[in-house]
Design goal:
Layout: H1 4-19, H2 32-47, H3 50-73, H4 75-87, H5 91-110, E1 114-116, E2 122-124, E3 128-134, H6 146-157, E4 167-172, H7 174-182, H8 189-201, E5 207-216, E6 219-228, H9 234-243, E7 255-256
Parallel strand pairs: 3-4, 4-5
Antiparallel strand pairs: 1-2, 2-3, 5-6, 5-7
Helix pairs in contact: 1-3, 2-3, 3-4, 3-5, 6-8
């Protein structure tokens, strides 16, 4: 197993190659997320919090994997996202783009034909929409009212023209799972499914999928919870059944990163 310095140096080199600039954590030319993530990893290492340190490295390696996948299969889209990432000054904006990148990479891995656009974010299988978003709780928040967060994002997105039966919402839920784990709580999927379905019923969206990146059995993987609306378009249902089947299984002994 590579020691920390070798592994961290490898991550830095790959980021350097992908972004085509120096990614030293104190370089003022770097986007804020590079400095923040790099510095946080070093802080964990100095504090002896090796579990959190390695989780953060896993996260960056996951990020690199997705970028490399885009670069190999869709160079134009890769360049688009690199440009967008370079422009980000606020870390909140970074997480949204980061989630989009992970979804685009997953489409490639699944063999899904897609087009990147703005409203909604992706068109898949020629005429089905996918709109990406994320739910997060501020670090200083004392409440974990994720039901409200889910309802708020559904209501916000329903104001757009892509609010129809052939569009699915893909929502990053990782931060919520992380904050629950800090309080030694787990996700109540039954409650989330019931509440989300109620919120979804007031819109025309066909479905919503909540994604969370989790460490299970020593590796980072993307898990999801799918909730369909009763008005689900048959073509969207067929697509989701093929690539995001509704199934639940217990995930024991997992940990999560703060974000993606």
């Amino acid at each position: 197993m590579l020691n920390f310095i070798e592994r961290f140096a490898g991550v830095i080199k790959k980021l350097n190659d992908l972004f085509n600039y120096r990614v030293e954590t104190n370089d003022e030319k770097n986007p804020s997320f590079v400095k923040t993530l790099g510095n946080q990893i070093m802080i964990y290492n100095l504090e002896g919090d090796f579990i959190s340190r390695d989780f953060e490295l896993d996260r960056l390696e996951f990020f690199i994997q997705h970028l490399e996948n885009l670069k190999m299969h869709d160079l134009q889209l890769f360049k688009f996202y690199i440009k967008e990432l370079r422009k980000q000054e606020q870390q909140d904006s970074y997480w949204g783009i980061r989630f989009e990148i992970s979804i685009a990479s997953s489409f490639i891995s699944k063999g899904i034909k897609f087009i990147k656009q703005e409203c909604p974010d992706f068109i898949v299988d020629n005429n089905l929409g996918v709109e990406c978003s994320s739910i997060r709780i501020r670090k200083d928040s004392q409440k974990l009212n994720y039901d409200y967060k889910i309802s708020a994002i559904i209501n916000k997105k329903s104001q757009n023209i892509y609010n129809n039966q052939s569009t699915a919402l893909y929502v990053d839920f990782t931060n919520i799972v992380y904050n629950l784990s800090l309080k030694q709580l787990v996700v109540d999927t039954k409650n989330i499914r019931s509440y989300t379905k109620q919120s979804l019923a007031s819109t025309n969206f066909g479905s919503i999928i909540l994604f969370a990146n989790m460490h299970t059995q020593g590796r980072l993987e993307q898990n999801y919870l799918r909730i369909d609306n009763d008005n689900l378009d048959p073509s969207l249902k067929n697509f989701l059944d093929k690539y995001y089947a509704i199934e639940e299984y217990p995930v024991n002994g997992y940990g999560t990163t703060y974000e993606l």
